[in-house]
Amino acid sequence: MATMNISLPDQMKQWVEEQVATGRYGNSSDYVRDLVRRDQERAEARQKLQDMVDEALASGRVEITRDELLERVMSRARAAVEARKSA
Questions:
Q1: Phi and psi of 56, rounded to 5°?
Q2: pLDDT tens digits, residue range 55-85?
Q3: Which one of 21, 23, 34, 70 is at 20 to 30 Å from 50 when CA atoms are compared?
Q4: Is 24 among the domain residues?
Q5: Are 21 and 42 in contact (CB under 8 A)?
């Protein structure tokens, strides 16, 4: 595993320490790894959402409203994120 040193303002450092103190994280590295993992999941979900929107727009078919399309796409994206969390 690689090592990375980061600098944080005092308020952020205190926040990280408070999160570790809750017992949910073993140390500050665990907390940062969790933040990075969640950020990666959000980026993947955003990209999937964008891909689905692009695909829908490219199809040229308008069988549902924009709101219905967005709800379907968001539902699929949420399901993909949940499936990734379960894996």
A1: -65, -45
A2: 888 887 767 888 888 899 899 999 988 888 8
A3: 34
A4: no
A5: no
Does the model's pTM come out above 0.70? no
83 falls within a domain: yes
Helices and strands (H and E) in the chain: how many: 3, 0
> End-to-end alpha-carbon separation of the chain, Å?
22
Q: What is the mean pLDDT of residues 33-56?
A: 93
Tell whether 31 is covered by a domain: no
Instruction: Confirm whether 15 is domain-assigned.
Output: no
49, with CB counted inside 10 A (0-12, 13-18, 19+), is middle
17 contacts: CB under 8 Å, gap ≥ 6: 28
Count up the domains in the chain and report the number: 1
- Residue 41 and residue 85 in contact, taking contact as beta carbons nearer than 8 Å: yes
